[in-house]
Amino acid sequence: MPGTILENLSTRKLSILVTCLLICQALCFLIGGLIAPLPANHQNILGMVCKDIPGSQNDTSVWLYTRGKGKCNAVSQEEIEQHDVKMANQIVFVFQMPIPREGHVLDYSRWQQNLIGVLQVDIAYDNDVLVDSHAVVTIDARLAYRNKEDSDYDWKLYATSLERRYLDCQSIHVSNTERLYSCETIPLFELGSLHHDFYLLNIRLPVDTDMKMNLDVGHIHDLQLTAIYQNGGFTKVWLSLKTIFFPIVVAIMIWFWHRVHLLQRSPALIEYMLIYLGLALTFLNMPLEYLTLAFDMPFMLLLSDIRQGVFYATLLSFWLVFAGEHMLIQETGKRSAVKNYWKHLSAVVVGCISLFAFDVCERGVQLRNPFYSIWTSRVGTNLALTFIVLAGISAGVYFLFLCYMIWKVFRNISLKQSSLPSMSAARRIHYEGIIYRFKFLMLATLICAALTVIGFIMGQIAEGHWKWDENIEVQLTSAFLTGVYGMWNIYIFALIILYAPSHKQWPTELNSSNERIASEEIEFNNLPSDSNPSEISSLTSFSRKAAFD
Amino acid sequence: MTKYHRIILQLGTYLPPSIGFLDTNGNSKSHNDVCQSFRELTNDQRRICSRSQKILTAISQGARIGLEECQHQFKNSRWNCTAPPNTPSLYGNVMSIKSRETAYIHAINSAALAWSITRACSRGELDDCACDSNIRKKPRKWQWGGCSEDINYGVGFSRRFTDAQESNSSAAGLMNLHNNEAGRRALRARMQRVCKCHGMSGSCSLRVCWRRLPPMRVVSEALGSLYDGASHVKLVQRDGRPAKLRRRDPDHKKLIKSDLVYLEDSPDYCEVNTELGILGTRGRICNRTSHGIDGCRLLCCGRGYQTRIRQVEEKCNCQFVWCCRVKCQMCSHTREEHLCN
């Protein structure tokens, strides 16, 4: 009686397969650690202060830049300090990205994928102005781009917006004449694509008494922008991994589906789930990033969120269905389908939909205005928190439910195990084998999940330690990222292989050596529900038999 | 008195870049001439200095900030970090005494130079800020793995520039080297770590962290408390081993690299001393109600004080209109000041 490959594979072959997969896993880890640089890097850019050109507040064709022909003249800190009103409404903070290094003019490469801007505000020491910890700063931000072949003054508008941001400042030092403030960073913009070579950010801080703009923020004397981009080297390594995994997973899926269709029965639910899982992984693996090298695709951040979301949702659903299909108390006569699991899966669906809604509200809107952030308004913050709390609750419910189901499976297995000694030797060996391999796979899942969590935590800690000499040879963060990515690919690859229907006949030595097995098989075959017993996974048969018992 | 501070004084004649440098006769000089004119510089330093005018600007900026911070930190003390006018040095001859004050000046200047160079790098003003991360020397490394943080370059620059002229065998040289390093450590230790999450949906599955340069005021305050707890040291030379500084009093805590050290006791800053370039506290503004060092009793060294009343005019109640008008009123108020006799 044929079952899945997992049941029919000899221990030796299984261990060879597992060893090969473990070697691949180690390779993924090492590629990330030894070849790839850190996933992301940053450049701190201190804003140069230039005098504004009068009348430019409504004219977005006016650009002030600090390098190249026609650059603006910088205003020194002393000039501003000496001015009565600190040159309010007369100055522009200019950030030209990227800044040059070692005498070379650097330019952004399309391999660097995306750009995130974070603003740091330095407030002058002054005892007269008390900066409220919830003061709001109004920023007139304008972003322009230029390419290498353009002339130095040829900046083109990318986005412009008048943004309000909370200035979360704490006074860190108070003496009788002055106080120092330490302010939280302000997220300013997120670009989903880094299509152009140079970017220019002009920031004005409009002060207006009637409109109550920027009156209670003190004298902002420095603005520092941190431009965060994905490292080109990391993108290259990541894309290479995707390029390798993509065809392999597609091939194994075709092989699997072909094998399922060789059977006379229609595919079982678990087989459908496996193919969905493979499809979700293929969607995640698809090396779409190659397209960004040629086309401007600002939606890549949103798309990669969606791709990851779809993959995780499918994986979580798969685990639920997997546990449910091995419940051993399955009602007979009823064909299982995904819709039988709607109660179980609702937590996944609710969680995913709320995360998707949050993502559309944040990154979706950023497609239109890269300066937008849902967190900057009260309503937006509440909305975002609602979505996130909803997703968190769903995750909790899901986890509890999954644990409950797995516990139930194990309880049923141990119940049946107690009756194993009364069975015939051959049948016992067979059942023990199935249970052992089922547990083996559960263990693999658990190890993968645990490694992901550990990898995540280690990644955070590894980066938390600052090494001054920076002589660390292994980039732990990258290693964990590629390691975890490779691990889930290998995990699903293994699942698809091991759960493919086997064409092998029932081990012959069992058939020939023990005659009693024949009668028991007859018993199996005569289960009332088994319409086509010879082609259903023996694990499922086992469960049905158990239920029948 | 170190060579570095004499150079800084000469840089004091520096004017905005459009005008350039002026020599004593008011003729303009190129930055290269300025660098070459510093006879005290080592060849290495002269090479660093001649690389660009921007570097010279950043160095002089650092020196100015160091002086400002020192003066702010000591504005209430008998010694207020001010040299008499027309002295050939920024801080006066007090630096010939290897006192706590000299220790502070060295520390704040080396920190301020690192600070100023780092900021110049972040502004994109300096062309030769490094992009290395020591390892992974690959071509096109910017595209591959980005650049290292500017503070590494700033601190390294400060080390190369200020430490170059100190000898590591004399007591004074060792003291200056120690205090220079203590200043840079005070800066580094006060860098604040900031992180930004940029993982899936903005979650913290991916995070990038960087260090933020502290305001120079924070560093000068920290060095101020190190100044209060500075260690009195002596030179210990055993044969075969390099000379080292050791604490003078074995009961005091062990010397660590971030401490300030001094060799000699401070001179009396109460009275004018033309030889040492000490201004004395005559004419200094004191606080009548304070019992601390800024109080009139201590600051005036028991000589008493006189009170003066001044009228001050300031702009106030400003109305801003975006864009771009500002209307202010003039307010005047009286201010009472106490001056030491």
UniProtKB/TrEMBL annotation, chain A:
<protein>
    <recommendedName>
        <fullName>Protein wntless</fullName>
    </recommendedName>
</protein>
<keyword id="KW-0472">Membrane</keyword>
<comment type="similarity">
    <text>Belongs to the wntless family.</text>
</comment>
<feature type="region of interest" description="Disordered">
    <location>
        <begin position="525"/>
        <end position="549"/>
    </location>
</feature>
<keyword id="KW-0770">Synapse</keyword>
<dbReference type="InterPro" id="IPR009551">
    <property type="entry name" value="Wntless"/>
</dbReference>
<feature type="transmembrane region" description="Helical">
    <location>
        <begin position="269"/>
        <end position="290"/>
    </location>
</feature>
<feature type="transmembrane region" description="Helical">
    <location>
        <begin position="310"/>
        <end position="329"/>
    </location>
</feature>
<keyword id="KW-0333">Golgi apparatus</keyword>
<comment type="subunit">
    <text>Interacts with wg; in the Golgi. Interacts with Vps35, a component of the retromer complex; wls stability is regulated by Vps35.</text>
</comment>
<feature type="compositionally biased region" description="Polar residues">
    <location>
        <begin position="526"/>
        <end position="543"/>
    </location>
</feature>
<dbReference type="GO" id="GO:0005789">
    <property type="term" value="C:endoplasmic reticulum membrane"/>
</dbReference>
<keyword id="KW-0217">Developmental protein</keyword>
<keyword id="KW-0967">Endosome</keyword>
<keyword id="KW-0812">Transmembrane</keyword>
<feature type="domain" description="Wntless-like transmembrane">
    <location>
        <begin position="231"/>
        <end position="503"/>
    </location>
</feature>
<dbReference type="GO" id="GO:0061355">
    <property type="term" value="P:Wnt protein secretion"/>
</dbReference>
<keyword id="KW-0966">Cell projection</keyword>
<dbReference type="GO" id="GO:0016055">
    <property type="term" value="P:Wnt signaling pathway"/>
</dbReference>
<dbReference type="GO" id="GO:0042734">
    <property type="term" value="C:presynaptic membrane"/>
</dbReference>
<feature type="transmembrane region" description="Helical">
    <location>
        <begin position="479"/>
        <end position="500"/>
    </location>
</feature>
<feature type="transmembrane region" description="Helical">
    <location>
        <begin position="440"/>
        <end position="459"/>
    </location>
</feature>
Automatic annotation (TrEMBL), chain B:
<dbReference type="GO" id="GO:0000902">
    <property type="term" value="P:cell morphogenesis"/>
</dbReference>
<dbReference type="GO" id="GO:0007517">
    <property type="term" value="P:muscle organ development"/>
</dbReference>
<dbReference type="GO" id="GO:0005125">
    <property type="term" value="F:cytokine activity"/>
</dbReference>
<protein>
    <recommendedName>
        <fullName>Protein Wnt</fullName>
    </recommendedName>
</protein>
<dbReference type="InterPro" id="IPR018161">
    <property type="entry name" value="Wnt_CS"/>
</dbReference>
<dbReference type="GO" id="GO:0005615">
    <property type="term" value="C:extracellular space"/>
</dbReference>
<dbReference type="GO" id="GO:0060070">
    <property type="term" value="P:canonical Wnt signaling pathway"/>
</dbReference>
<dbReference type="Pfam" id="PF00110">
    <property type="entry name" value="wnt"/>
</dbReference>
<dbReference type="GO" id="GO:0005109">
    <property type="term" value="F:frizzled binding"/>
</dbReference>
<comment type="function">
    <text>Ligand for members of the frizzled family of seven transmembrane receptors.</text>
</comment>
<comment type="similarity">
    <text>Belongs to the Wnt family.</text>
</comment>
<keyword id="KW-0964">Secreted</keyword>
<keyword id="KW-0217">Developmental protein</keyword>
<dbReference type="InterPro" id="IPR043158">
    <property type="entry name" value="Wnt_C"/>
</dbReference>
<dbReference type="GO" id="GO:0045165">
    <property type="term" value="P:cell fate commitment"/>
</dbReference>
<keyword id="KW-0449">Lipoprotein</keyword>
<dbReference type="InterPro" id="IPR009143">
    <property type="entry name" value="Wnt6"/>
</dbReference>
<dbReference type="InterPro" id="IPR005817">
    <property type="entry name" value="Wnt"/>
</dbReference>
<keyword id="KW-0879">Wnt signaling pathway</keyword>
<dbReference type="GO" id="GO:0030182">
    <property type="term" value="P:neuron differentiation"/>
</dbReference>
<keyword id="KW-1015">Disulfide bond</keyword>
<dbReference type="GO" id="GO:0060560">
    <property type="term" value="P:developmental growth involved in morphogenesis"/>
</dbReference>
